[in-house]
Amino acid sequence: KLEACDANCEGERNTHYTIQFENGKGDWDAGDTAGYIFTIVGSKGETAPFDCSATRSQGATGECTMEDVPDIGNIKEVKIYNSGDNYWCFLSLTINELNFGGKCVDDYLTETLSLAGEGIEYNILHETGTGDWDAGNTGGYIFTIVGTKDETAAHDCTSKRELESTGGCTIWDDADIGEIKEVKIYNSGDNYWCFLSLSVNGLDFGGKCVDDYLTETLSVAGEGVEYNIIHETGTEKWDAGSTGGYMFTIVGSNGETSPHDCTASRALGSTGTCTIWDDADIGEIKEVKIYNSGDNYWCFLSLSVNGLDFGGKCVDDYLTETLSVAGEGVEYNIIHETGTEKWDAGSTGGYMFTIVGSNGETSPHDCTASRALGSTGTCTIWDDADIGEIKEVKIYNSGDNYWCFSSLTVNDLAFEGGCSDDYTTEVFQ
């Protein structure tokens, strides 16, 4: 009688197999106890299929064992057939302590995993965003690493992707790709996912959102001119935005950058940051254009690029807003106190202020500020017009955001309180 070979050895019967795995922690990762048919493939042959019965509850560690007579030689692969409608994701799987990585096995499909550690190693780390819809699935995001010579095969990076979590995976590939330049991520399902940062072997690729059934390509960060963007999201009910989907174009005296998705936290009252790089020589920074590429209305109280102040704004669905560097022209400091009655509260943005003077008037400016019940809100606008002595303030309510305030001052000059009705202009003296 031949004894079982406990290790992965050539030339002896390897009849005893211990399979251990760590189940994913995503909402849909847990599987059934049975119904996953394993076939272990070696250098000489393969085992008979067997059902690996074990616990597959969310986040649990499962184990099963089997005995098989054939001498399959060195273990090379494992095939897992899901025999039912029992989708299952695992973060790691070992056979006789040999690592096969993680995977998700969909209903009635077979997945083949190769022995990890063969080829060039790529360590991927990512930080999932904080927005309501940022969390992704454990698997289904197919990574291709692109280099100066070639690219890897496509690999599913099975990893933790809960809100605000840090996840990672390691993939191996035989291709000699040269120096790493890009990462392509294909979302193979309806599993929208946003991450604030991603690195491969320590190289920074920034943040991105990967939409259903689409591919996103990220370049190595740090090439070109660096732009550090900081913004403070408003505190009103509808001010929060998505982590991604806002395309920033920095405009300068000589040209402008390409559009870049500024992936950052946009929760209510939060401060978000992103860094983008661009090869264009734009000269001195003058403006920022923000295109909202989805139905993700967003209001921010302040925004800066490389320390330059651009003030606040609201960016509506599928629209572009252009902000100029603050501080150019005459400065107007506006302070208002919102009323305390049930319907007095207004939106953070959407109220266009025109300051009227003895010689003329300013352009209309959106005064982005807090307008919660009983709150004191402030904004600062700049305008090039020489209007003379301030006389009046015109406020145009550009939406259905009725607002009442008990007091209003401009550069310490007091104006009567009042209400600004939907789509109406009111004049205050």
List the helices and strands and how they pair.
Elements: E1 16-23, E2 36-42, E3 50-51, E4 61-67, E5 75-82, E6 88-95, E7 98-99, E8 103-105, E9 110-114, E10 120-128, E11 141-147, E12 155-156, E13 166-173, E14 180-187, E15 193-200, E16 203-204, E17 208-210, E18 215-219, E19 225-233, E20 246-252, E21 260-261, E22 271-278, E23 285-292, E24 298-305, E25 308-309, E26 313-315, E27 320-324, E28 330-338, E29 351-357, E30 365-366, E31 376-383, E32 390-397, E33 403-410, E34 413-415, E35 418-420, E36 425-428
Antiparallel strand pairs: 1-4, 1-6, 2-3, 2-5, 5-9, 6-7, 6-8, 10-13, 10-15, 11-12, 11-14, 14-18, 15-16, 15-17, 19-22, 19-24, 20-21, 20-23, 23-27, 24-25, 24-26, 28-31, 28-33, 29-30, 29-32, 32-36, 33-34, 33-35
Task: List its traits.
single chain; 429 residues; mainly beta; five-stranded antiparallel beta sheet; disordered N terminus
